[in-house]
Design a protein that fits this description.
Layout (H helix, E strand, L loop, with lengths): L1 E4 L3 H39 L20 E8 L5 E8 L2 E12 L4 E10 L17 E8 L23 H7 L12 E4 L22 H25 L3 E4 L6
Parallel strand pairs: 5-7
Antiparallel strand pairs: 1-8, 2-4, 2-6, 3-4, 4-5, 6-7
Amino acid sequence: MKIQFRPMLWPSIFSIITFIILCSFGTWQVKRLYWKEALIQRYITESQSKPITNLSEFSKSKIKEFRAVEISGKFLHNNEIYITGKTYEGNAGFHVVTPFKMENNKIVLINRGWVSEGYKNPNKRRFSLAKGKVKLKGIIRYPQKKGYFVPDNDGVNGFWFTIIPNQIFNFIKINTEFIVNDFYIDALRLGKKITLPIGVDGKPNLRNQHLSYAITWYGLALSLLFVYFSYHVSSGRLIFKKIKRDG
């Protein structure tokens, strides 16, 4: 088989650059896949560990994310805020984030869970406003990082998109030496009965579609090669000839 190939200059340059970019995106998604799988495994390990009950543990420089905790204290319901754009089983709503004063007087933010638009107003869900001392089980979460396409928090107009403790505490004017800025806590849903706000169930809810993304990018790279060589074949610049042998 003899191959005659006369590549066109600019289509070749464009195809080479694009092919490298597509493969780079695919490789990046593979790396993200391994990172996300490790993160999910860490969530399972830490969340199912023995919960932290000693409040002195919170004074340490670094508490592992996803660590289970069990604390007692009092909700400061008058200062709750609402994280917009959250869904539960396909229904739009909000996450209710409320300051929680622990027994050592430190105040930490609790993501209590999901409520629908109709129950955003606390006056319509007075049954959810636990009074007095309560015992809470939850999972440590680090402050969220704003995504590239996520708007900035706008507390004045009531638009919150990311849980960043220091921003929230500054807005609700809780500025004391006792506030916790290093993390917040996702409240766990307890029992089979679902009540508002609907907390997390303790299972990893971390989106992991990196494998499909990687396949997509690599697939596009292969499609580019197919189009590139097909074009050269149709234009007579890529020819496959059988070699005739004498005798």
